[in-house]
Amino acid sequence: MSLTHIDIDDEALETAKRLGGHRTKTAAVATALEEYNKRLLRAAAYEKYFDIAQGWDIEGAEEAHRADKEAFRH
What is the pLDDT of residue 39? Predict the structure, then answer.
């Protein structure tokens, strides 16, 4: 973990604390970063599969998805 000084809009941070049920600013920012990273990973996965699937039929797409899930489990 690193100590970082950044300027954040006070109103936006207080709204995030209130809506997220966070007691501290640190908790609100940490959760926001986690959610942002998840969103970026989902977007990258969607793009990956969209690009790969351009020439597939539905069976090919389903097989690739199963194979990817199986590889992730191991």
Answer: 96
CB 22 within 8 A of CB 28: yes
Report d(CA 32, CA 17) in Å as an integer. 10
Widest CA span of the chain, in angstroms?
50
Report pLDDT digits (tens) over 46-56: 998 888 878 77
Cβ neighbors of 61 (< 8 A, separation 6 or more) are 49, 53
Q: How many helices (H) and strands (E) would you count in the chain?
A: 3, 0
- Nearest alpha-carbon partner for 52 in 43, 61, 42, 39: 61
Using only C-alpha atoms, the chain has a radius of gyration, in whole angstroms, of: 19
